Protein: Phosphatidic acid phosphatase type 2/haloperoxidase domain-containing protein
Amino acid sequence: MTCACCGAEVRTGAVGNVTETRSRPDVRATPPPALPASLRAPLGLAAALGALVVVLLGVVSASHSEPGRVDTWVQPASTELSSPWRTIALALDFLGQPVGAVLLVGVLAVGCLPLRGPRAAALVVVGAGLTVVTTTLLKHLVGRTIHGDNLSYPSGHTALLTALALAVALPVTGRARLGRTAGTLLVLTAALVAGAAAGWAQVSLGAHYPTDALAGWCTALTVLPATAWLIDRTVDAARPGRR
Structure:
């Protein structure tokens, strides 16, 4: 028999009036995680490799003000863009500027609420914020410049757009209940597409060296999964009855 007021399952014994009450688990009390359990291992490995690339490129590029060998090989001799490519590049660049970034983060945060609830929205906002803070600190630490004294390593635009793509792909993966392989493929593909588009725009506009864009992509790949894990740990630890 089920109690109408609390939903508990009540069993009445045949001898006497002994009753046994067994509470049903409250599924709603456990919100879906920001980082799906199936993706923790692969994204943890990707984050570690990304951090390694950022450190290695940072050491090589420290205090430089000119492109390296890889940059010279990747970057075309002329970065002049014709329409409509220049318009597309400028639009992508705007999304990484303060006004564009705030608008984009706000839209994505609201859009993620139906997918996985408050944790998904928090991942968009906190993940974007920590990515910006990390790239800013790295720029001052590495000291690589372009066009005078403009700090360039790593690319903040590339890092931000990659982080936002990851922040959206993670709740989509969880909502679709994808397995480890399919989920990892979806998340990394989203990160690659966003990072490639943002990196292309920054390099084509002459705002960054190619290795700046690569480092920005790797920075997001490191910061965002760590942020998702931190959100899960913080929220779970604060839940009532959790020790």
Summary: The two ends are 32 Å apart (CA to CA).
